[in-house]
Amino acid sequence: MASYTIIRQAAPDWAAVPAVTLRHQPWLAPCAVAARAQACHDGERLFVRMEAEEAPVRATLTGPLDQVCNDSCLEFFFAPDPADARYFNFEWNPLGTLYLGFGAGRPTRVRQIVRDAQALFAPTPFQTERGWGIEFSIPASFVRLYVPGFALAGEAAGNFYKCGDQTQTPHYLAWSPLGSETPDYHRRRDFGTLVFG
After folding, report:
1. For residue range 130-173, what is the model confidence (pLDDT) as tens digits?
2. CB of 196 closer than 8 Å to CB of 152
3. Comparing C-alpha atoms, which of 149, 93, 100 is closest to residue 120?
4. Residue 93 and residue 73 in contact, taking contact as beta carbons nearer than 8 Å
């Protein structure tokens, strides 16, 4: 199982934060799309930075109920308690549009509509010479609304994903290996271990 240590920093210094590569490309033929992810924390917020090499980039969806996985999309699935089957799925497109869910899997996962995602998660999309990326943060206080007692300590579980269902080159990339025969990011058993340093 994949494991990643999320180091503690007073403020994100991405040049000093270890990165993971989304090297697993199940279900479709390998393609030229590539992605990486980084995370760190300050004890109160979990900071995430994801970046993709992708051309052309599809960025069309802006609505609160839009399925951003149809655009170029970077995703972080996060289970705060490794003994709890429930997890968040944060899905972002290059415009900073968020699809957020919470639950124990597809049948019980509930779409979450937050009042001001910009203020709460501070998403910052950016463009690069070879693609795009996004930085955002998750307050521990927000997680505690769902998982009382949560702290940025010990272990959690999660996975980093890249997809683009309606892009010019549809693709699926993951950090922690996936075991399903058909496309499915919502398998808690495929999550890797996240260790808070």
Report:
1. 999 999 999 999 999 999 999 999 999 999 999 999 999 999 99
2. yes
3. 100
4. yes
Q: What is the pTM of this model?
A: 0.96
The 3-class secondary structure across 104-147, one letter per residue, is: CCCCCCEECCCCCHHHHHCCEEEEECCEEEEEEEEEHHHHHCCC
Cα–Cα distance, 180 to 42 (Å, whole number): 35
- Can you give the three-state secondary structure of 51-89, one letter per residue? EEECCCCCCCCCCCCCCHHHCCEEEEEEECCCCCCCEEE
Distance CA 106, CA 65 (A): 16
The secondary structure of residue 16, as a DSSP letter, is G
SS3 assignment, position 176? coil
- How many other C-beta atoms are found inside a 10 Å radius of the C-beta of residue 130? 11
CA 39/CA 62 separation, integer angstroms: 25
Residue 59 and residue 95 in contact, taking contact as beta carbons nearer than 8 Å? yes
Asked if 90 contacts 98 with a C-beta cutoff of 8 angstroms, the reply is yes
Nearest-angstrom CA–CA distance, 100 and 98: 6
Distance CA 142, CA 113 (A): 13
